[in-house]
Amino acid sequence: MNKQDAVTHQYKRVPLSQITGQKYNPPSRIAKGATADLVNSMGEFGMFYPVLVDEHMNLIDGHRRTDAANLLAWTHIHCLIVKSPYGVGTAYARVNDDVKGITGSQSLEIYLKHGTVPSLNHRNTIEEIEGRFGKYLLTIMKDAKVGPRAYSVACSWVRYYVKTVLKGKATPKDVDTMVKKTLMWIAGVGSGARLEDAMRDKYTPAQEVMDCIDNNVAFVINQPTGKSKLKVV
After folding, report:
1. pTM summary value
2. CATH 3.90.1530.10 domain residues, the chain
3. Are 52 and 59 in contact (CB under 8 A)?
4. DSSP E strand stretches across the chain
5. Which DSSP helix (H) or strand (E) runs through 211?
6. Rounded to an integer, what distance in angstroms lies between the CA atom of residue 217 and that of residue 169?
7. What is the pLDDT of residues 148-164, one digit of tens each?
8. Helix (H) or strand (E) holding 8
9. What is the CATH number of domain 3-98?
10. pLDDT tens, position by position, 38-94
11. What is the dihedral of CA 94, 98, 99, 104, to 10 degrees?
12. CA–CA separation, 191 vs 11, rounded Å?
C-alpha cells in the first residue's frame, strides 16, 4: 500500500466537549495568557484551518486553537479527523517534527519583496524598524539572516546600558543611534544571544560590551573561575 493511502481524512464540525488534549503537549503552550493573541485573532477573523484529531477525538494538532475556542465560548470547532495505523503518539510527533514555520529572516525577505508579511507580530516589528531606520537596515538584516527578534534584543540591550551606565541620561537621538549600531553589530560580527548573556551576567561590564559594539568586534564571555569575563575575539 502507498504510504499516502494509509492515512485517511474526514472533515467535520465537532463539539468542543468531545475533544481530548494530547498528554505530550507542553502545558506552557496553553497556560493562562499564552493564547491571548490567538484569541484576539480568532475572535476577529475566525479559524482559518481546522484542528487535527484522531477517530477517538484525541487532539494531534491544534491545542492552542482549541484553548482559544474555549476561551471564546465556542461550542463547536472544525476538525480534520485522521485515521492511520500509526497511533496518536506517532501522529503527534510527525506533525510537530515535520512542521517548519517561516523564520524571522524569511519574514524580512517576504516584506522587502511584497511590502507586507503574514505574521502580524513580525509585520509590526518590521514596520517599526523601517520607520525608525529605513529599508536599508532591513536589507542588511535579511542578508545576514537576522530576524525581527534581533531588534527586540537590541532595544533591550540599549535600555539596559542607558540604565546601568548612563544612569538614564540619553536623548532619543542617542538611543536611536545605539539601537542602530547594536543591530548592525548583531547582523555583522555579533549575536543577540551574546547580548542576552551580557545582560544576565553581573560580572560583565556593560561599557566593555558597548565598546565592542562601537568598534564592531565580537566577544565571548568566559567563566574560568565562576565569574564571567568578557573576551574580544
Report:
1. 0.69
2. 3-98
3. yes
4. 8-15, 51-54, 59-61, 76-83, 219-222, 229-232
5. helix 206-214
6. 25
7. 999 999 999 999 999 99
8. strand 8-15
9. 3.90.1530.10
10. 999 899 999 998 999 999 999 989 999 999 999 999 999 999 999 888 888 888 888
11. 140
12. 45
